[in-house]
Write a structure and sequence with these properties.
alpha/beta, 10 strands, globular
């Protein structure tokens, strides 16, 4: 059966892997790319033009820390020139009033500020950067002053999930229109630190109640998106809304990926924008077509009424937990891999001595 391929709506540009923070749940790969391998300003500008031509509407400028790129303002201007909606995903470190005003003038549409904790002690410990929290709060004030629409991106895990009510309060205090409460997904550095980051079932249950209450009471004031901890769910998430369906990622050196963790699937070969047009990679690239649609799904998923809801779940999670990217996501209650996931979960949450964080360095 031939698959209908629509153009992507969103593109995540990982401008750099450099970052002043060292969060142990960073979604970057554990093999970070060096500054010398990063694409030039002109190369990114060309990609933005290609992306717009391909049909991309939203550009997420990410990293690492995108503010580590000295040409960030030029990159935003180039993206706007291409007609893309621009969202800056930042820790705030490396931004100041002068740069933020220049970004505003260049046409930046939206800022997504990451939050490592609601106190300096927690935030600076998780980010591995002393003084980071105070700088972030200062940047948040400037963002509000300029009037950028702001989303607070709170990454939650065992150490800070109990601070969820205070986290939501902080979003209100900072004037955010939206908060994304994202429980850590175990890819990249988070996979290395899974045993330390995995919340308990009690924490997850309490968090769900807090979120439900807040959605009700803050209706009209704050939009709340909740990404629950995957391992406690009964069914998998529709990762990337389905592989190669709506979004793509570009790494700092121009490699084009169907998702941020795709390089953990060893048999896939990824192409680079230096060698092939973005549009050709999207429509014809072998890696993009490997898990596109539902025809490739195993028999178990083919007969499931959730087949067109979650598309078998996350390929990278099947790879990480089961060593088989073609298997149903082990989060699924119907999957034979669920037993392996439950065993991991029990072992990690019951461990008496939690290991120390391995910080991203
Ligand atoms: Fe790669 Fe889910 S992170 S498919």
């Amino acid at each position: 059966m031939s698959i209908r391929i629509d153009p992507p709506m969103a593109m995540l540009a990982e401008l750099t892997h450099r970052c002043p923070l060292a969060c142990p749940y960073c979604s970057n790969p554990t093999e970070l790319l060096a500054k010398e391998t990063e694409l030039s300003t002109d190369a990114w500008a060309d990609i933005f033009q290609q992306a717009a031509k391909l049909g991309v509407l939203q550009l997420h400028l990410s990293g690492g820390e995108p503010a580590s790129r000295r040409d960030l303002v030029e990159l935003v201007a180039a993206a706007r020139e291409a007609g893309l909606y621009t969202n800056l995903i930042t820790s705030g470190i490396g931004l100041n009033e002068r740069r933020l005003r220049a970004l505003d003038e260049a046409g930046l549409d939206h800022v997504q500020l990451s939050l490592q904790g609601v106190t300096a002690a927690m935030a600076d410990r998780i980010g591995g950067y002393k003084g980071g929290f105070d700088r972030k709060m200062h940047v948040a004030e400037i963002i509000a002053d300029i009037g950028f629409p702001l989303t607070l991106n709170a990454v939650m895990h065992r150490e800070n999930l109990d601070d969820l009510p205070a986290t939501i309060d902080m979003a209100l205090r900072l004037g955010a229109r939206r908060i994304e409460i994202a429980c850590v997904q175990f890819q990249g550095w988070a996979l290395v630190n899974r045993a330390v980051l995995q919340p308990s079932r009690e924490q997850v249950d309490a968090a769900k109640k807090t979120v439900a209450r807040a959605i009700e009471t803050l209706k009209g004031r704050l939009v709340i998106d909740f990404v629950p901890p995957d391992y406690y769910s009964d069914f998998p998430k529709a990762c990337m809304n389905g592989w190669g369906s709506t979004g793509l990622n570009i790494t700092p050196n121009g490699t084009v990926l169907p998702c941020h963790a795709a390089e953990t699937i060893p048999h896939l070969q990824f192409e680079n924008v230096a060698k092939r047009e973005l549009s050709d990679i999207w429509y014809d690239g072998a890696a993009f077509n490997a898990y596109r649609g539902t025809d490739w799904l195993p028999e178990l998923c083919q007969g499931c009424d959730r087949r067109d809801i979650d598309f078998g779940g996350c390929r990278c999670q099947a790879m990480a937990v089961l060593g088989d990217a073609s298997a149903p996501d082990p989060v699924c209650r119907k999957s034979p891999g669920r037993a392996a996931l439950d065993a991991l979960l029990n072992e990690e949450v019951q461990a008496v001595d939690a290991p120390e964080f391995v910080f991203r360095r």
